[in-house]
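User: I'm putting together a small comparison set for a docking exercise, and I want a reference complex before I start. The sequence is below, and the ligand is zinc ion. Could you produce the 3D structure with the ligand included, as structure tokens?
Assistant: Of course. I'll restate your input first, then give the structure tokens for the complex.
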Amino acid sequence: MEGPGAPLYSPDMRLKLVQVGEEVLRQTARKLEPKEIDGREIQQLIDFMQETLRDVPGVGLAAPQVGIGVQLVVIEDLPEYSQNLTEQQRVERERSPVPFHVIINPVITKAENLMVEFFEGCLSLNGFTAVVPRFRSVTVECLNEHAERRCIEATGWYARILQHEIDHLNGKLYIDRMRSRTFMTLDNSSRIWKDVGMEEVKRWLGIKEEM
Ligand code: ZN
């Protein structure tokens, strides 16, 4: 509820990952002012979020997920995160490593018509996963950690990460977009469905393609 000027959090407060059910995950996060971005508070928040993302580990983290309703996201997809995927799965997902970067006040300005479907998870829905349709490619306009304008053109898994994280800034979670019949525990997804193709998964879980 605090506007610009009020402290976002006290430096000695421990930030933690919040789980679904917390209001902050359902609110629209506020945009950051360029002059705020250079301030100590936001720079500390970026450091903390980078550390948290590496610890978990995850490929993306939005500030509302640590309880802070501002439009800031950190992203990093390290090569080792996809080492459990087969070459075919990597190709299907169009997944390649993405170096660490920060996006602030992002807006999706263009999206390819084609939708692609894969399982995805969220650090705020710990232990669960579901198939989520996403645009294959998106263009995102945003600021970086120095308040400089950036335009990102992303395809494949990186485009999925961007859409997932930008949703967080608008109070949306993947469960709002998922194929609900595919919702399952992570444990079951790796036990039963890990090496099953997406079409098979949808067929077995009783999803009929809408026209
Ligand atoms: Zn998430």
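The chain has six helices and eight strands. Strands lie at 60-62, 72-77, 98-111, 115-120, 128-135, 137-143, 149-155, 184-185.
User: Thanks, that's exactly what I needed.
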